[in-house]
Amino acid sequence: MKKIVILIVYITFSIGCKAQILDIYETLPSETPLNAYLKDTQNFQNQFVGTWVYQNGQEYLEVRFIKREMFWRPAPTQFYEDVLVGEYKYIDSNGIEKVNSLSNLNLNHDNLFNYNLYSGAKLVLDRYPLCPSCPIGTERLYMHFDEPANDDNMLSAGFVIRRVIENGVEKLKVQFINKSSKSGRSKADFYVPSTFTNFSLPYGDYTLIKQ
C-alpha cells in the first residue's frame, strides 16, 4: 500500500512539473503560473547565437549573442524563461570606438536588465517595425537595446533581428529603432537630470555577417 501511495505521489508530481513547462512565445507573462518555465520549445533563439559583424569603411558593429536557459524572473513575475542576451562593440565612421560592452557577456547576471541586449517578443510581419522586403511567414525577434552610458530613465530602443542565408552566407538583418525618447531624468534619481541624449549607434537597418 505504501508503495502505491508513493507511486501516485510521484506520478502526480511528474505531471505537475510537466504542466509547468510552457511555450515562451505562446504564453503571456501575465498569464504565467507561479514558478512555471517559459521554454523556447522550438529553439527559435538558437539561430541567433554567435558573433555577427557589420562593417562599412571604418564603421564597425560587432554583436554577440548567447542563450541563457531557465533564467529566473523574480517578483512580481516569478517564473523561469529562456532568454537570448547579447552585447556589442560599435566603432563610428571616424574610427572612434563609442561602445564596447562585449566583456559583459561573460558575466552571469541574475538581473536581465544588466545586459545591454535581451530578447522580448517574436514579431510577425504586421507588427512594427514593418518589413516590406521580408518573405511571407517571416518571424523576427525583438531585442531590448541599451548602452552602458545611458543614464536616462526613458530613452530606449529596439533591435529587431531575423536570420537569412544569401548566396550561402549566413546573415543577420537588423532593424534598429527608437522606442522612446529621453526624458531628461536620471534612472538613479528622478529629480536629477540625465546626461545621456541618444544612442551612439545610429538608427536604421544593418546587415551583419556570421563569424
Walkthrough of the structure:
- Pfam families: DUF6705.
- This is DUF6705 domain-containing protein.
- InterPro entries: DUF6705.
- Residues 1-211 form the DUF6705 domain.
- The protein has one domain.
- The termini are far apart.
- The protein is 9% helix and 42% strand.
- By secondary structure, the chain is mostly beta strands.
- It has an eight-stranded antiparallel β-barrel with strand order 3-4-5-7-8-9-10-11.
- β3 and β4 form a beta hairpin.
- It has one helix at residues 2-19; strands spanning 21-23, 37-39, 50-56, 59-73, 79-91, 97-100, 117-123, 140-145, 156-166, 169-180, 204-210.
Name some characteristics of this structure.
mainly beta, 8-stranded antiparallel β-barrel, DUF6705 domain-containing protein, disordered N terminus, DUF6705, 211 residues
List SSEs in N-to-C order. HEEEEEEEEEEE
Instruction: Indicate the radius of gyration in whole angstroms.
Output: 20 Å
State the low-pLDDT regions, or none. Answer: 1-17
- Tally of structural domains: 1
Query: What's the overall geometry?
Result: globular
**Continuous helix count:** 1
Strands ordered across the widest β-sheet = 3-4-5-7-8-9-10-11
The overall average pLDDT, rounded, is 91
Q: Please state the structural category.
A: mainly beta
> Distance between termini?
61 Å
Organism: Flavobacterium tibetense
Domain DUF6705: 1-211
Protein name: DUF6705 domain-containing protein
